[in-house]
Specification:
The protein is mostly helical and about 290 residues long. It is built from 16 helices and no strands. It has helices at about 5-10, 20-30, 35-50, 50-60, 65-70, 80-95, 105-125, 135-150, 155-165, 170-180, 195-200, 200-205, 215-235, 240-250, 255-265, 270-285. Helix 13 (about 215-235) packs across helix 16. The model is unreliable at about 1-15 and about 130 (pLDDT under 50).
Length: about 290
């Protein structure tokens, strides 16, 4: 099917359930189901001749099937009209790709595409934070959530059985179970919260003060001032004292007292005294 065919399908008004979901369902249920012969004839017209009217009739005759599938996802707390709408998109994709020469009914071919679109919608909108991103996680999400309707927390044997059935690790089953049991939390405190409870909102304990531009600028200014004061204080020392402090405190590979003693031909105790005196002078200069 060409792009024009896909565009024509998507622009039709009957593809949207709208606000009156009851009237929509009643309307699609009133559309006659195609016989195998009529379906094959329409599919051939679409496949070989790109007949847009044939595409429209194929889609319309299967809208009731989309409603049936969408109802099975009603437990996710999402708008039914949106679920049906996403399923209709999957139906259109199936009609576009349907090959009448394969010898299967359109409904059998379309179920994969319908569920795929609904699954994507559920995963995008069920939680603010995504609970499943990889193909294995998505499969685990829908299978495990279906079982959780009749089970409490999984026992180890039940988790192993689920992992074996789905071809995943047991740890992944436990991780998904925790995600399914979690709830989204508002970042800000609700307006109804009093002062005693408001502090529990994440906005208060997740604040990262390091990202405050004012504090960053203050820290940078303070650090620059410290470096400037130290450089000024060091410049007031003699070359030997500067070198001792540099080697003992400011170098990545710090020199020992004995190494500096050998360098200047004095005792290690003398180097320690020079270091101590130089540190006192630098400290006094920086605090002045």
């Amino acid at each position: 099917m060409t792009t024009n065919t896909s565009t024509a399908l998507q622009s039709t008004e009957w593809m949207s359930p709208g606000a009156n979901i009851g009237a929509y369902i009643q309307g699609v249920n009133s559309i006659a189901v195609l016989s195998a012969e009529d379906e094959k004839s329409l599919a051939e017209q679409l496949y070989y001749q790109e007949n847009l009217d044939a595409a429209r009739r194929l889609v319309m005759s299967h809208l009731r099937f989309v409603v049936h599938i969408a109802r099975s996802y009603n437990g996710y707390g999402l708008n039914m009209a949106d679920l049906i709408q996403e399923g209709n998109v999957g139906l259109m994709k199936a009609v576009k790709r349907f090959n009448p020469e394969k010898g299967v009914r359109l409904v059998s071919f379309a179920v994969h595409w319908i569920k795929a679109e609904i699954h994507e919608y559920v995963l995008r909108n069920w939680r603010i934070v995504k609970v499943a991103t990889t193909k294995a996680q998505r499969k685990l999400f829908f299978n495990l959530r279906g079982q959780k309707k009749r089970l409490a927390w999984l026992s180890h044997d039940e988790a192993k059985a689920v992992a074996s059935d789905l071809g995943v690790e047991v740890d992944q089953v436990y991780e998904m179970e925790k995600r399914l049991s979690a709830h989204d939390t508002g970042f800000d405190a609700p307006d109804s919260d009093d002062d005693d409870n408001a502090y529990q909102a994440p906005v208060y304990y997740l604040e990262d003060k390091r990202s405050d531009p004012a504090m960053q600028l203050e820290q940078e200014d303070s650090q620059a001032d410290s470096y400037s004061r130290m450089a000024s204080a060091m410049s007031e020392l003699d070359e030997r004292s500067q070198d001792i402090l540099q080697q003992r405190w400011l170098s990545e590979e710090k020199a020992t007292l004995h190494e500096l003693a050998d360098k200047y031909g004095v005792s290690a105790e003398r180097i320690r005294q020079l270091e101590k005196n130089a540190m006192k002078k630098v400290r006094a200069s920086m605090e002045a």
